[in-house]
Amino acid sequence: MHTPSGVFSPPLPPVAAAPSAPLAPAVRAVGIPSPAGFLPGLESAAPADEDSLWLQDALLGPHSADIVRYLGLARDCGGGPVLDLGCGAGRLAVPFARQGFRVEAVDRDADSLERLRAWGRRIGPQVSERLATTRADLAGLRLRGGYRLVLLAGAMISAVPPGARPGLLREIAAHLEPGGALALDFTVHRPRGLVEDPSRTWAFQVPRFDGVEEWTVARQEFDPDGMREHITYHSVRTGRLSSERVVTATRKWIVDPERLTAELHGAGLRVERRRGHRVDERTESVLLVCRAGG
């Protein structure tokens, strides 16, 4: 689902200054490489600062493999308009606009939406004029138009509280045009695996192009009883003159596939296509394509 730039496990570089929160002791140990190149994302966390956007782009960046898949689906649906929910800084919305689709991009983070608009303006009016942005929380979303394709990409469904999911899905279903589709992806965890192994660790380098070297250890912790997961990213950034340690975190809901299917059906949506990719023996990445008529 996500395309990391590389997964390594070297010792982290020494730190000369630490203006941010200190690294946890576990971060000083060698990290465990990510299985099958899979990294958890920052779906439910707004960027903490400008530098944190490098980490976010590494996890859910503009070169993620799902863009091609979603573009093909948009063409199958007959074009736009496309609704990109939880759009972030436009990793899907801007490429869609470049391909000629009209896109409404929705996110709760104002800074991310401004990055999206600035990206579109840099490319030119042929792209920026196809982009409309709306600042809103998905838990209370109210739509106005009709859409040929609605995207909940990058596991955004896991950022929506379970109690708010049925209402969101009903709202989406009510605004799908004839022949339109909802596409969403999420991670399926084997329940027994969560109990047996409630924490996982990855280490990787964040690609940056500003002269800063950044290494990150991601610690993923599961709460099977509460159906929650918490991911903490401990990063060391080393520049020419100084280094710093930074901690970024995100909290998400663990998606129960059977419950989600029931919620889709209750919203009047049927699962037309299911595509799964096995991450490891405990985890699967799933893409669902849903149509009206559940």
Chain-wise SSE layout:
Elements: H1 52-59, H2 66-76, E1 82-85, H3 93-98, E2 103-107, H4 110-123, H5 125-128, E3 131-135, E4 147-152, H6 165-174, E5 176-189, H7 191-196, E6 199-206, E7 213-223, E8 228-238, E9 243-253, H8 257-266, E10 269-280, E11 283-292
Parallel strand pairs: 1-2, 1-4, 2-3, 4-5
Antiparallel strand pairs: 5-11, 6-7, 7-8, 8-9, 10-11
Architecture overview:
The chain has 294 residues and is an alpha/beta fold. The chain contains 8 helices and 11 strands. The protein has helices at 52-59, 66-76, 93-98, 110-123, 125-128, 165-174, 191-196, 257-266; strands spanning 82-85, 103-107, 131-135, 147-152, 176-189, 199-206, 213-223, 228-238, 243-253, 269-280, 283-292. Helix 6 links the parallel strand 4 (147-152) and strand 5. It is globular and about 55 Å long. The chain starts with 51 loop residues before the first helix and ends with a strand.
The average pLDDT is: 82
Low-confidence stretches: 1-38
Global shape: globular
Based on CA atoms alone, the radius of gyration comes out at 19 Å
Give the strand line-up of the largest sheet.
Answer: 3-2-1-4-5-11-10
Count of DSSP strands: 11
- Work out the helix count: 8
SSE-based structural type: alpha/beta
Biggest β-sheet, characterized? 7 strands, mixed
What is the distance, rounded to the nearest whole angstrom, between the alpha carbons of the first and last residues?
Answer: 26 Å
What portion of residues is helical? 10-25%
SSE order, as H and E? HHEHEHHEEHEHEEEEHEE
| Range of strand content | 25-35%
